[in-house]
Amino acid sequence: xxxxxxxxxxxxxxxxxxxxxxxxxxxxxxxxxxxxxxxxxxxxxxxxxxxxxxxxxxxxxxxxxxxxxxxxxxxxxxxxxxxxxxxxxxxxxxxxxxxxxxxxxxxxxxxxxxxxxxxxxxxxxxxxxxxxxxxxxxxxxxxxxxxxxxxxxxxxxxxxxxxxxxxxxxxxxxxxxxxxxxxxxxxxxxxxxxxxxxxxxxxxxxxxxxxxxxxxxxxxxxxxxxxxxxxxxxxxxxxxxxxxxxxxxxxxxxxxxxxxxxxxxxxxxxxxxxxxxxxxxxxxxxxxxxxxxxxxxxxxxxxxxxxxxxxxxxxxxxxxxxxxxxxxxxxxxxxxxxxxxx
Length: 342
Known about the structure:
alpha/beta, Rossmann fold, 15 helices, 55% helix
């Protein structure tokens, strides 16, 4: 069976820039799979150039549907000498013609022109061009846009949004916001920008709940926190609110189980939060939160809750005819720290 080669990344000799602070250069390589970050980087380069000269000419090319001569034609000086920005998409699928002409262009970039090369890293296609750029041919810079996959990465992303806007958000509010958009970075970015634009002061938990409390993940966050804290009545109210808002039992159980697993990983360790977080691949705040959540729990009650979560997970996925009852029973076990009916 043929194997798929993963793209390899050569060592780079050119400046590496953050997508949050992009700057123009004759060649700007925007690499990596995270489209939200790549779009921000490309827009940032455009805005930088436009601020320097509003007459900036902006053109777009596709490297996989390329017409010979287009790159040189769009980068060549016009009659009035306006600066030019050429955005090239699809370099990971580039045609042979584009590859040949782009390599030739690196040897003699046009004065006053900025060329952005967007390569997602989805294939090794165009590797020769990337290697040449990274070797310094053409006087380029690179903006790497790595995938944002882990919860800690999403937390850092959202925190960065507010830091960049010089706006304060409470840690609990930030955690609730990230939980509300755990599966879609584009929506998380949009939510951050909406709060930054709409809320005049600091952003608290109440504000996040008011804006996004109807989302399943935020509802699950409230159910899990109140149940784990032992607030049985509040947990049932939060659960009924979540279900009435259209929450599905499957992600509700998944959110609760996730918090229980984090508590189990942290339980019993006396390592400093930073060291434990590093060893477990977590953030310091996640360790601190799990340790606070463990108040009132012991090994037996935590084991019972984890077993109840496993049972509820199977039931809401088809093993029971009443998934709502399965979630209610799980919340009861967790909030009372006792087996159901015990």
